[in-house]
Design brief:
homodimer, Arc Repressor Mutant, subunit A, Beta-Lactamase, 12 helices, DNA-binding
Amino acid sequence: MSKELSERKKKILHALVDVYIATGQPVSSADIQKGYMPEVSSATIRAELSALEALGYVDQPHTSAGRIPLKPAYQLYVGDIEHNGAGALTDEETAFIRKKFADKLSEVRDISKRAAEIISDVTNYTSFAVSSRGGNVMLDEIKLVPLKDGKVLVLIVTDEGIIADKTIDVEGGVKHGYIETATRMLNNVFAGRRVGELEGMDLDSELTAETDAFRDIFDAVLAIIQTYVAEHTDDVVVEGALKMLDYPEYNNVEDAKNFLAVISDHDSVSELLAGDEDSIEFSVRIGKEDSGVDKCAIITAAYKVGDEVVGRAGVIGPERMDYKKVIGVLDYMKKALGTVLDNDKEDE
Amino acid sequence: MSKELSERKKKILHALVDVYIATGQPVSSADIQKGYMPEVSSATIRAELSALEALGYVDQPHTSAGRIPLKPAYQLYVGDIEHNGAGALTDEETAFIRKKFADKLSEVRDISKRAAEIISDVTNYTSFAVSSRGGNVMLDEIKLVPLKDGKVLVLIVTDEGIIADKTIDVEGGVKHGYIETATRMLNNVFAGRRVGELEGMDLDSELTAETDAFRDIFDAVLAIIQTYVAEHTDDVVVEGALKMLDYPEYNNVEDAKNFLAVISDHDSVSELLAGDEDSIEFSVRIGKEDSGVDKCAIITAAYKVGDEVVGRAGVIGPERMDYKKVIGVLDYMKKALGTVLDNDKEDE
DNA sequence: TGCTAGCACTCATTAACTCCGACTGCTAAC
DNA sequence: GTTAGCAGTCGGAGTTAATGAGTGCTAGCA
């Protein structure tokens, strides 16, 4: 893009994307003239379109067809939206969202899920939510509960509730005082830390001669926490995966299958989102190649509690998606989620 | 079916289903003659097919096409398999299955999931597993663990491990001796029972004046258990849902979407299986109407530990599926699963 | 110089038609 | 009861023609 486009070119491009999003069909010069600029003739628009084609903004499927937008056109369009503000939601929509968030949800995972549901329902696209908090969960306390047969239940209590429970066998049975001593030692080492810190922890440097007798239980606890971190970093929820099949872009089984395979695999979804800096509030990516979901656009928004980004949620849809609406919804959800999460925080 | 079919008719029918399963195309009289009965002419087979058509076993898509089997033909075919024994698995297949079950899985849910994976991988159809144990889980013990701020953690220990943990607030704080007394009373009422018994339990009849002071905690525990039962009866796992899209029967997006919608909704899957008596070892249902998955056949097998049916697993595929193989696999899995589950039992 | 009206041209889409070949059903002979 | 042979049926593939949406270009006008 060496040079700024003329105002008129921009207007035409915007109109073209608008119409194309609505219809999915190549847009003719007459379409644009009728709906957007009756003050000039279609021939003039044709001349401009011809120029835009040379600049790589639009394409013609064949000689006697209208134009379809290319990626740069979408990018310009999206840039305009972000600049001028997104489409406001209707009253019904905001009411719907508030209602859905009315009943209290305690677990972060539930909130993610609910958010993804709402986004998918309101936009009618496939949505997802990824909570990235994972490693930042704070270990409050470790509890040991003796069970029968020399087994001990280990509970790991965090600021998000109990993240894991697991029974372990204690070598040689549970002797008197064992529980109390072990609990104290474990909490000395683990309590007050963030689970992320423990990723590559070297237990040897933490343990003294005194604690070495409890080596087994230390190992077990560490393993539990590490498993938790591995499983819960980038916890992914996808909602409305089948909605994509309603759009003609995915009206063939081959593509549909591909899409569903990617979207059902949480690792792939995480990868799709990789590279988004936490600092970016909105990210719009159009037609990401070799991801298995080319022909798609992905819009994500970062959600914060205070200053900390706790997750991203977003929409994946056809390139010609209703960007105005989607960005509007994600923006509203940002506020709504902020409130829900903050309230939740206070309650604890 | 007023009268037994002649041997030759049966043979022709069997051949027809065989070929149709392999090719998915209408089968001509010549196909049957070539592959299965070169001793008679195709004209003879045509005459027999004509008779079979009159009897409702086969159909002709149009005048100049071969025949395709109808439900009664499949049923006869499946009956033969069950009678004559299913196709044996290849050595690679049994090795594959054994390998997959090699690493120990502790939770019933994990075993279900693994079983579904195996079945889907070996057969190449969509599979599912439903553990119906649900209500039969035995309550071993209830543990109360005091946490800070007057909260108490309730742990419900069953013969399947800890089924639920939840923190509750205790009115007026946790007084000295409260934990011990409450634990004893709770266990008096709940320990040793099956969770299913507690479905519509009337607490009033169980409580005495003495226990009435602990009414709150009784209510809480009962609620936890009931939630668990509601969530865990008919725990459903589906694997390889997308495999169905490989079959030409589901080569259009509309049908594919329908299928996926049904199969992704665990309640619908449960419903599909409803009506199978636990006592039935194998159930084959072909083309179940108004279920959203007509054009499908569903084969399920019951899995037992000792004499108790702990779940069903099965395959859902196109009507023309490889019944021999599927029944063979399910049968083998029956033994394999029996072993896994029994071992597991002994370990506890 | 920029805009526009008008026209010739292009090309996807659809419908109508034909041809081919895969099967069957029927019949007459064995 | 079986079979060879043949006429008849019908779907699918390929061809052609008609349609119409939309463009690019050009000549004339402000």
